Amino acid sequence: MDARLNLFASQITGKAFKHLMAAGKVLKESTLPAATQELVSLRVSQINGCAVCIDMHTKEAAAAGETSVRLNLVAAWREAKVFTEAERAALELAEEGTRTADAAGGVGDEVWARASHHYDEEQLNALVLLVAFMNLANRLNLITQQPAGDYKVGQLH
User: Fold this and answer.
1) Engineering a disulfide at 40: which of 51, 60, 94, 143 sits with its beta carbon 3.0 to 4.6 angstroms away?
2) pLDDT at 121 over 80
3) Which segments of 36-99 are extended strands (E)?
4) How many CA atoms lie within 13 A of 11 on its CB side?
């Protein structure tokens, strides 16, 4: 598969990506646990079918010490015993925040309450931004048919 556009060669996307990468750096440096960030990024990308981001986040998570068992079970996190209650709350919020059309109203109050129980206000801000950021990245990659499989750990950080 060939990409429809080279997003890194365009002047306009190059300028926009500088800001997006800066936003991504702010999220990486937040107090939201790094493992949670990678699990959420992976789950959002799985829901959206973004192979580029699935490739990136599985490799980044593995390089950071995430186990293959947990990475393989992200798609079925509800039935898996390997995630903490906090991670489950983040994954649930990520799913409802991604499936806004399916969720008929976005993130429900019970889902928000569970996330709020495990994360402070700064972490919740980071989590919300991360879900929105990943949905943006997924859509850019899907619209332009970016191929997956060649990502190297640290390539975009």
Assistant:
1) 94
2) yes
3) none
4) 0
